[in-house]
Design brief:
alpha/beta; six-stranded mixed beta sheet; four-stranded antiparallel beta sheet; 9 helices; globular; disordered C terminus; binds adenosine-5'-diphosphate
Protein backbone atom coordinates (compact mmCIF):
# COMPACT_ATOMS: atom_id res chain seq x y z
CA UNK A 1 0.00 0.00 0.00
CA UNK A 2 1.46 3.32 -1.05
CA UNK A 3 0.38 6.93 -0.69
CA UNK A 4 2.49 8.63 -3.35
CA UNK A 5 3.98 7.14 -6.46
CA UNK A 6 6.45 8.88 -8.77
CA UNK A 7 6.34 7.16 -12.11
CA UNK A 8 9.17 8.06 -14.49
CA UNK A 9 9.15 11.68 -13.36
CA UNK A 10 11.58 14.21 -14.83
CA UNK A 11 11.93 17.93 -14.48
CA UNK A 12 13.98 20.19 -16.70
CA UNK A 13 13.81 23.88 -15.88
CA UNK A 14 14.06 26.22 -18.80
CA UNK A 15 17.59 27.60 -19.11
CA UNK A 16 17.60 31.36 -19.34
CA UNK A 17 14.38 31.54 -21.26
CA UNK A 18 15.58 29.58 -24.29
CA UNK A 19 16.45 25.96 -24.79
CA UNK A 20 16.60 23.52 -21.92
CA UNK A 21 18.88 23.29 -18.93
CA UNK A 22 20.12 20.08 -17.33
CA UNK A 23 17.53 17.85 -15.74
CA UNK A 24 16.90 18.72 -12.09
CA UNK A 25 15.18 15.36 -11.67
CA UNK A 26 15.67 12.54 -14.10
CA UNK A 27 13.34 9.60 -14.59
CA UNK A 28 12.43 9.18 -10.96
CA UNK A 29 10.54 6.11 -9.80
CA UNK A 30 9.65 6.18 -6.14
CA UNK A 31 6.88 4.86 -3.93
CA UNK A 32 6.09 6.36 -0.57
CA UNK A 33 4.22 3.82 1.52
CA UNK A 34 1.15 4.74 3.47
CA UNK A 35 1.93 5.85 7.04
CA UNK A 36 5.69 5.81 6.63
CA UNK A 37 8.23 8.58 6.98
CA UNK A 38 10.30 8.55 3.85
CA UNK A 39 13.32 10.83 4.03
CA UNK A 40 14.86 12.13 0.86
CA UNK A 41 18.53 13.00 1.24
CA UNK A 42 21.26 14.15 -1.07
CA UNK A 43 23.59 17.07 -1.69
CA UNK A 44 22.37 20.56 -2.32
CA UNK A 45 20.97 21.03 -5.79
CA UNK A 46 20.27 17.36 -6.45
CA UNK A 47 16.55 17.90 -6.94
CA UNK A 48 15.01 17.18 -3.52
CA UNK A 49 12.86 20.30 -3.32
CA UNK A 50 11.85 19.96 -6.93
CA UNK A 51 10.66 16.43 -6.23
CA UNK A 52 8.44 17.56 -3.35
CA UNK A 53 7.16 20.55 -5.26
CA UNK A 54 6.11 18.39 -8.16
CA UNK A 55 4.00 16.29 -5.79
CA UNK A 56 1.91 19.29 -4.75
CA UNK A 57 2.05 20.91 -8.18
CA UNK A 58 4.05 23.97 -7.30
CA UNK A 59 6.26 22.66 -10.10
CA UNK A 60 4.96 20.85 -13.16
CA UNK A 61 6.95 17.78 -14.23
CA UNK A 62 8.40 17.73 -17.72
CA UNK A 63 7.61 14.04 -17.99
CA UNK A 64 6.08 11.20 -16.01
CA UNK A 65 3.24 11.23 -13.55
CA UNK A 66 2.62 11.40 -9.85
CA UNK A 67 -0.17 9.57 -8.10
CA UNK A 68 -1.64 10.50 -4.73
CA UNK A 69 -3.55 7.56 -3.30
CA UNK A 70 -4.12 6.38 -6.86
CA UNK A 71 -5.19 9.75 -8.26
CA UNK A 72 -3.07 11.53 -10.84
CA UNK A 73 -2.29 14.81 -9.07
CA UNK A 74 -2.89 16.78 -12.26
CA UNK A 75 -6.51 15.63 -12.11
CA UNK A 76 -7.12 16.61 -8.50
CA UNK A 77 -8.77 19.95 -7.78
CA UNK A 78 -6.10 22.32 -6.38
CA UNK A 79 -7.92 23.04 -3.11
CA UNK A 80 -8.52 19.32 -2.58
CA UNK A 81 -4.84 18.74 -3.25
CA UNK A 82 -4.02 21.19 -0.42
CA UNK A 83 -6.49 19.42 1.82
CA UNK A 84 -4.98 16.02 1.11
CA UNK A 85 -1.33 17.03 1.20
CA UNK A 86 0.11 19.41 3.78
CA UNK A 87 3.35 21.26 3.08
CA UNK A 88 5.90 22.50 5.59
CA UNK A 89 8.98 24.44 4.57
CA UNK A 90 11.97 25.99 6.31
CA UNK A 91 11.03 29.41 7.70
CA UNK A 92 7.42 28.32 7.34
CA UNK A 93 6.09 31.14 5.21
CA UNK A 94 3.50 32.19 7.77
CA UNK A 95 1.39 35.16 6.74
CA UNK A 96 2.98 37.98 8.76
CA UNK A 97 -0.18 40.06 9.19
CA UNK A 98 -2.32 37.18 10.34
CA UNK A 99 -2.45 35.80 13.84
CA UNK A 100 -1.36 32.29 14.70
CA UNK A 101 -5.01 31.19 14.72
CA UNK A 102 -5.70 32.80 11.36
CA UNK A 103 -2.62 31.18 9.87
CA UNK A 104 -3.66 27.76 11.10
CA UNK A 105 -7.20 28.37 9.79
CA UNK A 106 -6.00 29.12 6.23
CA UNK A 107 -7.03 25.93 4.46
CA UNK A 108 -10.23 25.36 6.50
CA UNK A 109 -11.32 28.84 5.42
CA UNK A 110 -10.57 28.06 1.79
CA UNK A 111 -12.72 24.98 2.21
CA UNK A 112 -15.54 27.02 3.74
CA UNK A 113 -15.61 25.40 7.17
CA UNK A 114 -17.86 27.27 9.59
CA UNK A 115 -16.45 29.29 12.50
CA UNK A 116 -17.22 26.74 15.16
CA UNK A 117 -15.61 23.84 13.37
CA UNK A 118 -12.59 25.95 12.43
CA UNK A 119 -12.17 27.37 15.93
CA UNK A 120 -12.31 23.94 17.52
CA UNK A 121 -9.83 22.58 15.04
CA UNK A 122 -7.42 25.48 15.54
CA UNK A 123 -7.52 24.98 19.29
CA UNK A 124 -6.95 21.23 18.97
CA UNK A 125 -4.00 21.73 16.59
CA UNK A 126 -2.29 24.30 18.76
CA UNK A 127 -2.57 21.90 21.70
CA UNK A 128 -1.18 19.13 19.50
CA UNK A 129 1.96 21.07 18.63
CA UNK A 130 2.46 22.29 22.19
CA UNK A 131 1.35 25.90 21.85
CA UNK A 132 -1.29 26.73 24.49
CA UNK A 133 -4.12 28.39 22.49
CA UNK A 134 -4.86 30.99 25.17
CA UNK A 135 -1.24 32.14 24.99
CA UNK A 136 -0.54 31.84 21.30
CA UNK A 137 -3.73 32.09 19.19
CA UNK A 138 -3.77 35.89 18.99
CA UNK A 139 -0.05 36.41 18.49
CA UNK A 140 1.54 37.43 15.25
CA UNK A 141 4.43 35.47 13.70
CA UNK A 142 7.00 38.11 14.67
CA UNK A 143 6.03 37.56 18.31
CA UNK A 144 7.18 33.94 18.18
CA UNK A 145 10.53 32.18 18.42
CA UNK A 146 11.83 30.27 15.40
CA UNK A 147 10.80 26.96 16.93
CA UNK A 148 7.33 28.27 17.77
CA UNK A 149 6.87 29.48 14.21
CA UNK A 150 7.84 26.05 12.96
CA UNK A 151 5.19 24.52 15.24
CA UNK A 152 2.59 26.84 13.78
CA UNK A 153 3.69 25.74 10.31
CA UNK A 154 3.16 22.10 11.27
CA UNK A 155 -0.24 22.90 12.81
CA UNK A 156 -1.31 24.76 9.69
CA UNK A 157 -0.21 21.91 7.47
CA UNK A 158 -2.17 19.42 9.58
CA UNK A 159 -5.36 21.51 9.72
CA UNK A 160 -7.39 19.29 7.43
CA UNK A 161 -5.89 16.08 8.80
CA UNK A 162 -4.21 15.36 5.47
CA UNK A 163 -3.12 11.78 4.81
CA UNK A 164 0.17 13.10 3.45
CA UNK A 165 2.60 15.73 4.65
CA UNK A 166 5.45 17.07 2.53
CA UNK A 167 8.24 18.61 4.58
CA UNK A 168 11.18 20.51 3.12
CA UNK A 169 13.94 21.10 5.67
CA UNK A 170 11.17 21.65 8.23
CA UNK A 171 13.46 22.18 11.21
CA UNK A 172 16.42 23.65 9.36
CA UNK A 173 16.05 27.14 10.80
CA UNK A 174 15.82 25.98 14.40
CA UNK A 175 18.77 25.80 16.80
CA UNK A 176 20.17 22.28 17.44
CA UNK A 177 18.55 21.77 20.82
CA UNK A 178 15.17 23.04 19.68
CA UNK A 179 15.49 20.98 16.55
CA UNK A 180 16.03 17.79 18.49
CA UNK A 181 12.93 18.48 20.56
CA UNK A 182 10.83 19.31 17.51
CA UNK A 183 11.97 16.13 15.78
CA UNK A 184 10.95 14.03 18.75
CA UNK A 185 7.62 15.75 19.14
CA UNK A 186 6.90 15.59 15.46
CA UNK A 187 7.67 11.86 15.39
CA UNK A 188 5.18 11.38 18.21
CA UNK A 189 2.52 13.37 16.34
CA UNK A 190 3.19 11.50 13.12
CA UNK A 191 2.80 8.12 14.79
CA UNK A 192 -0.33 9.26 16.59
CA UNK A 193 -1.98 10.50 13.39
CA UNK A 194 -0.52 7.88 11.04
CA UNK A 195 0.37 10.58 8.54
CA UNK A 196 2.45 9.62 5.52
CA UNK A 197 5.46 11.91 5.47
CA UNK A 198 7.90 12.72 2.73
CA UNK A 199 10.69 14.73 4.29
CA UNK A 200 13.63 16.42 2.63
CA UNK A 201 16.77 17.14 4.60
CA UNK A 202 20.50 17.48 4.11
CA UNK A 203 20.98 16.66 7.79
CA UNK A 204 21.98 12.98 7.93
CA UNK A 205 21.39 12.87 11.66
CA UNK A 206 17.84 14.06 11.10
CA UNK A 207 17.34 11.44 8.40
CA UNK A 208 18.50 8.64 10.67
CA UNK A 209 16.37 9.86 13.57
CA UNK A 210 13.17 10.34 11.67
CA UNK A 211 13.07 7.95 8.75
CA UNK A 212 11.36 4.65 8.29
CA UNK A 213 13.14 4.58 4.95
CA UNK A 214 15.74 6.76 3.33
CA UNK A 215 15.95 7.44 -0.38
CA UNK A 216 19.13 8.97 -1.74
CA UNK A 217 18.96 11.37 -4.61
CA UNK A 218 22.43 11.30 -6.11
CA UNK A 219 24.04 14.23 -7.77
CA UNK A 220 25.94 13.88 -10.98
CA UNK A 221 27.30 16.61 -13.19
CA UNK A 222 23.97 16.98 -14.90
CA UNK A 223 21.74 13.99 -14.49
CA UNK A 224 20.39 13.07 -11.10
CA UNK A 225 19.08 9.60 -10.64
CA UNK A 226 17.24 8.42 -7.61
CA UNK A 227 18.56 5.12 -6.43
CA UNK A 228 15.57 2.98 -5.59
CA UNK A 229 14.66 3.34 -1.92
CA UNK A 230 17.63 2.13 0.01
CA UNK A 231 17.84 0.36 3.31
CA UNK A 232 15.35 0.58 6.06
CA UNK A 233 16.76 2.80 8.75
CA UNK A 234 15.32 1.91 12.11
CA UNK A 235 14.06 4.68 14.32
P1 LIG B 1 17.74 20.50 -3.68
O1 LIG B 1 16.41 20.67 -3.03
O2 LIG B 1 18.22 19.08 -3.67
O3 LIG B 1 18.78 21.43 -3.16
P2 LIG B 1 16.46 21.69 -5.99
O4 LIG B 1 15.32 20.83 -6.34
O5 LIG B 1 16.17 22.94 -5.26
O6 LIG B 1 17.55 20.84 -5.24
O7 LIG B 1 17.21 22.10 -7.34
C1 LIG B 1 17.62 21.14 -8.31
C2 LIG B 1 18.24 21.87 -9.49
O8 LIG B 1 17.25 22.61 -10.17
C3 LIG B 1 19.32 22.84 -9.11
O9 LIG B 1 20.30 22.82 -10.12
C4 LIG B 1 18.60 24.17 -9.09
O10 LIG B 1 19.48 25.23 -9.39
C5 LIG B 1 17.56 23.99 -10.18
N1 LIG B 1 16.35 24.77 -9.93
C6 LIG B 1 15.55 24.67 -8.84
N2 LIG B 1 14.49 25.49 -8.94
C7 LIG B 1 14.63 26.14 -10.12
C8 LIG B 1 13.86 27.11 -10.82
N3 LIG B 1 12.71 27.59 -10.30
N4 LIG B 1 14.30 27.53 -12.03
C9 LIG B 1 15.42 27.03 -12.56
N5 LIG B 1 16.19 26.11 -11.97
C10 LIG B 1 15.80 25.65 -10.75
P1 LIG C 1 -11.27 36.21 11.20
O1 LIG C 1 -11.91 37.49 11.63
O2 LIG C 1 -10.45 36.33 9.95
O3 LIG C 1 -12.21 35.05 11.21
P2 LIG C 1 -10.22 35.41 13.74
O4 LIG C 1 -9.05 35.95 14.45
O5 LIG C 1 -11.54 35.66 14.36
O6 LIG C 1 -10.14 35.93 12.28
O7 LIG C 1 -10.02 33.83 13.63
C1 LIG C 1 -9.47 33.10 12.56
C2 LIG C 1 -9.85 31.68 12.81
O8 LIG C 1 -9.15 31.20 13.96
C3 LIG C 1 -11.33 31.58 13.11
O9 LIG C 1 -11.87 30.48 12.41
C4 LIG C 1 -11.40 31.35 14.59
O10 LIG C 1 -12.43 30.43 14.90
C5 LIG C 1 -10.05 30.78 14.95
N1 LIG C 1 -9.62 31.32 16.24
C6 LIG C 1 -9.46 32.62 16.57
N2 LIG C 1 -9.06 32.76 17.84
C7 LIG C 1 -8.98 31.52 18.35
C8 LIG C 1 -8.64 31.01 19.65
N3 LIG C 1 -8.30 31.77 20.66
N4 LIG C 1 -8.65 29.68 19.82
C9 LIG C 1 -9.00 28.88 18.78
N5 LIG C 1 -9.34 29.30 17.54
C10 LIG C 1 -9.35 30.61 17.34
Amino acid sequence: EWAIRFDGVSKTYPAGGAGTGPAAVHDLDLDVRAHEVLVLVGPSGCGKSTTLRMANRLVEPSAGRILLEGDDVTRVDPVQLRRRMGYVIQNVGLFPHRTVAQNVATIPKLLGWDRKRTGERVEQLLELVGLAPERYAKRYPHELSGGERQRVGVARALATDPPVLLMDEPFGAVDPVGRRRLQNEFSRIQRELGTTVMLVTHDIDEAVRMADRVAVLSSGATIEQLASPLEVVAR
